[in-house]
Design brief:
By secondary structure, the protein is mainly α. The chain has 2 domains: 32 residues, no CATH class; 67 residues, Multidrug-efflux Transporter Regulator, Chain: A, Domain 2 (Orthogonal Bundle). Strand 2 and strand 3 form a beta hairpin. The N and C termini lie far apart (51 Å).
């Protein structure tokens, strides 16, 4: 299959117009976002993000709606897990263990 000369010229023109510095800036920002989404959080940090107590975070971990990773004496929670939790349970009452169980029974 022969390459259309007009398409090739257009592609070459677009490549020539690319701002390399801008692309490098975008790449750096993407790397930061990837790093931030893989950051591990403590119960205290999660409680601050969710505006609840550390005991509430513990209850979420105990019921399995937030999965933590045991690291020695403490539990760390991936930041992505919190983002997924917020999307999954948006609009649901999770104020106590019974409410959490009810939400889980609804298939959330």
């Amino acid at each position: 299959m022969l390459l259309d000369l007009e398409k090739a010229e257009k592609a070459a023109s677009l490549i020539a117009d690319l701002d390399i510095e801008k692309l490098e800036d975008i790449k750096k920002k993407a790397e930061i976002l990837i790093f931030m989404s893989t950051k591990m959080l403590t119960r205290e940090e999660v409680a601050a993000i969710l505006n609840c107590s550390t005991q509430q975070v513990g209850m979420y971990i105990d019921t399995g709606i937030i999965e933590g990773i045991k690291t020695g004496k403490s539990v760390m929670i991936p930041q992505q897990e919190i983002m997924d939790f917020q999307k999954r349970f948006k609009g649901h009452d999770l104020s106590n263990k019974q409410a959490v169980i009810a939400a889980l029974k609804q298939g959330v």
